[in-house]
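On clarity, I found the account of how folds are encoded harder to follow than it need be. For illustration, here is how one protein appears when written out as sequence plus structure tokens:

:::
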Amino acid sequence: MIINPVAIVVATIACMGLGSLWYGPLFGEKWMALVGIKKDTISKADMKIAMTQGLIATLLSNVFLALLLLLASTQTLADAVKISLVLALATGVPGALHDIAWERKPLTLFYMNSAHCILNFALAAVIIQALSQ
């Protein structure tokens, strides 16, 4: 496997799409209630900043995921998904739990964010692996 920059960009776009669905039509209202955001208080400028920061974070995550897939010499999509699960369970899920613990947010938010993290890493791994062979 080689690191394919196009695969990283495609994975980043796909992950941003998943996030838009996850925190939009699927769970957006519930998520906003859990974090204390009111729809009428969100400006377009705030959304641009948040989306830009999210894009950068997703791109960085996918670069490092691609590096881990390369270092692990993954050969199959299943191998890539296994690595993505290890990464999500070792970093994203504990990070979400720290957020809940320190920010005193509801446990439901932990489940919502952790599930998104796991799916996001798996989606990215499949795309990066498939396009980098």
